[in-house]
Specification:
Layout: E1 16-25, H1 28-33, H2 38-56, E2 66-70, E3 73-79, H3 88-107, E4 112-123, E5 128-129, H4 131-144, E6 149-151, H5 153-158, E7 163-165, E8 171-173, H6 182-196, H7 200-219, H8 229-235
Parallel strand pairs: 4-6
Antiparallel strand pairs: 1-3, 1-4, 2-3, 4-5, 7-8
Length: 244
């Protein structure tokens, strides 16, 4: 049956300016192939625990940031002004939630990669659409490479203290700045070394995070909290795995 007349008139959708974050759990294909629902429930916990942690600080409310989780990907979006300077507070909220999600993933023993950018975006119960989404996915897949959350240069320029410039020209979010559970992160990073030491690609990702972890705590005088070469050598004595 074809609709005619007024029945054919649909609400007109339009894009608005949003800050968008796109986060991806590395190695998820393997986890989802497992017949158990452990990864599903871990992913649920990773997001909602992070959301509750950030809400408890008063920095965001449950309505402030829209979220969608599909497969192993988490999409976050918050409406902003055309002038980024006028939206610093909202962008800061996005960085805060993204960092907590990254840290919670590590707390559960997973590595995460992502990107934060801005641009035209539209989201409702059916559509997720817009250039900001395309850019965020492209940055996560082709620029982030390592388990880090990279950001558009314009976001770095207005909130530089939240980022660490990387050797390849990217700006990586200082995720450990947002929640201090160094002992837990250290334990899980060494566990990842045990699990993946026979997988070169996986170990490159784990070692990048260890390097970032050590650099962060060295900058704050927490040298004792760093992961030493001897600890890594001991950890890689057994185990195997795959991160992709």
């Amino acid at each position: 049956m074809f609709r005619s007349g007024q029945a054919r008139i649909l609400p007109q959708l339009k894009t608005s300016k949003y800050c968008v974050a796109y986060l991806d759990v590395l190695g998820a294909k393997k986890f989802m192939a497992d017949s158990s629902d452990k990864f599903l429930n871990d992913l649920n916990s990773i997001y909602f625990d992070a959301k509750n942690e950030v809400e408890s600080t008063g920095r965001i409310t449950s309505e402030a940031i829209e979220a969608k989780i599909f497969s192993d990907n988490i999409l976050l979006a918050i409406k902003i002004e055309d002038d980024l300077e006028k939206s610093k507070d909202k962008i800061e909220r996005m960085l805060c939630l993204s960092a907590h999600i990254y840290n919670n993933a590590l707390w559960h023993g997973y590595l995460m990669r992502g990107a934060v950018t801005f641009g035209d975006f539209c989201q409702n119960s059916l559509f997720v659409y817009g250039k900001a989404l395309i850019d965020a996915v492209d940055m996560e897949e082709n620029i982030a490479i390592y388990p880090r959350i990279v950001a558009h240069e314009s976001l770095y320029e207005i909130l530089q203290h939240y980022f660490a410039p990387c050797a390849d020209g990217c700006f990586a979010l200082k995720t450990f700045l947002f929640s201090d559970m160094a002992d837990v992160y250290k334990f899980n990073l060494l566990e990842l070394c045990k699990r993946h030491h026979k997988d070169i690609k996986a170990m490159q990702k784990v070692m990048w995070v260890i390097s970032h972890f050590n650099a962060y705590y060295e900058s704050f005088g927490g040298i004792k909290r760093q992961i030493s070469k001897s600890e890594i050598a001991e950890a890689v004595s057994n185990g195997k795995g795959d991160l992709s």
